[in-house]
Design goal:
Helix content: 40-55%
Largest sheet: 5 strands, mixed, barrel
Radius of gyration: 61 Å
Number of helices: 11
Order of helices and strands: HEEEHEEHEHEHEHEHEHHHHEEEE
Shape: elongated
Distance between the termini: 205 Å
Strand order of the largest sheet: 1-2-3-5-4
């Protein structure tokens, strides 16, 4: 029996596996685990397993580039490929040519994955949504100029908003080159100074609308500086363009109505603004009149004439106060004089004389003792009422 090398054994087994038609071009169902995408080569490596077993699998970059979705751990899939031996390690593995989700279609899974990715990046955030201009001067329309969508937009704007300018940019709305064409159209409309941009097309199948479900178009709308209205002609389903746009319209005609007001709305708004301006003007005039009156009052109060008038009034008040105080003071003095006069009067000798007594004077000297007199002296007698002269005849 010959002695074989490990390499010879592995090559023999690999050859036998490749010869076996039962394991070539097969389809295998299982769950993905240990998924790895080699960032340099683009090859995909993973394990395909069920409840009891597992098998290594590899998908080379040439086949992986055709996938419409991103495989993930835990995803149930059906893969097509062939079994062969990786001679270096002596391990057999499944070489995958295609992967399809088990249940949902690849396109549906890819769409949901892209939605999740863009949502995580903030492309759909309401905080990023911008308000549409009330009266845009220039309205952009990025769509196919040979389609019905642009005609609908022209009809609506010419009827509702003839004062606005429409800037239409021709773009492919389906096919492989449509996403790049739509993004280029958005940039042109933005560079032309459009105040709002309508991006869309008429209705169609999900395949026809696929350009509006791409990452390129989502970021083209997200990065646009002007507000964007998505107008993909479908009523029920939302495209990624709808989610990324600042406003979503079910049809191009509805988008045109959202982009600009009607002349009736403008007239009503002008009436409202006119009433507001009138009320505001009246308020300002009334406020100015009140300020004028207040300033005039202050000016009058600070004028020399008014200050002189006030000074005169104060002087009159002071004069009245002084006069009143003087009268009170004189009255107080009079009362005091009267009181003292009454006391003095009560102590006056005249009071004594009025009761029958009299005073005897020798010259100007009051005689208080009879011993001071002698016979023959002439004296003056003061009575309560009048005086008399007398001669001393005798004394006792």
């Amino acid at each position: 029996m010959p002695v074989l090398t490990v390499t010879q054994i592995n090559r023999y087994v690999s050859f036998k596996l490749k010869e076996d038609k039962n394991i070539q071009g097969i389809m295998v169902k299982g769950e993905i685990s240990n998924f790895t995408e080699h960032f340099r080569s683009g090859h995909l490596y993973f394990t395909l397993k069920d409840k009891e077993s597992a098998v290594k699998a590899v998908m080379f970059a040439s086949a992986a580039s055709r996938l419409k979705f991103q495989p993930e751990d835990g995803m149930s899939v059906i893969v097509s490929g062939s079994i062969s031996l990786y001679e270096r390690d002596g391990a057999y593995q499944l070489y995958v040519n295609d992967i399809q989700p088990d249940g949902a279609g690849a396109a549906s899974v890819a769409l949901e994955q892209l939605k999740a990715k863009l949502a995580k990046a903030g492309v759909f955030d309401t905080a990023h949504k911008r308000q549409l201009p009330v009266m845009p001067k220039k309205i952009g329309a990025v769509t196919s100029l040979s389609g019905a969508a642009v005609r609908d937009i022209i009809n609506v704007l010419s009827r509702r908003y003839p004062i606005g300018e429409l800037y239409a940019v021709n773009a492919l709305v389906q096919g492989e080159n449509a996403p790049d064409s739509i993004c280029s159209g958005i940039l042109k409309a933005e560079a032309a100074g459009c105040d709002v941009i309508i991006v869309g097309r008429g209705g169609g199948s999900s395949e026809d609308l696929s350009a509006f479900n791409t990452e390129k178009v989502a970021y083209g709308i997200y990065n646009c500086k002007a507000p964007v209205i998505s107008a993909v002609g479908h009523e029920t389903d939302f495209t990624i363009a709808d989610l990324a746009a600042d406003m979503r319209a079910p049809t191009p005609s509805a988008a045109a109505e959202l982009a600009a007001p009607s002349m009736e709305q403008i007239a009503e708004r002008l009436n409202i603004l006119e009433r507001r301006m009138k009320n505001l003007a009246e308020m300002k005039v009334n406020r100015a009149a009140e300020n004028y009156a207040a300033l005039n009052s202050r000016l009058i109060s600070q004028s020399p004439e008014n200050r002189l008038k006030i000074s005169r009034e104060r002087l009159n008040i002071l004069e009245n106060r002084i006069g009143s105080a003087y009268e009170k003071y004189i009255s107080k003095l009079n009362s005091a004089v009267c009181e003292r006069a009454a006391k003095l009067d009560s102590l006056s000798p005249l009071k004594v004389l009025s009761r029958g007594y009299s005073l005897v004077y020798s010259g100007d000297k009051l005689i208080k003792d009879a011993e001071k007199l002698k016979k023959g002296d002439v004296v003056r007698i003061r009575f309560g009422n009048g005086e008399a002269d007398a001669e001393i005849i005798d004394k006792r």
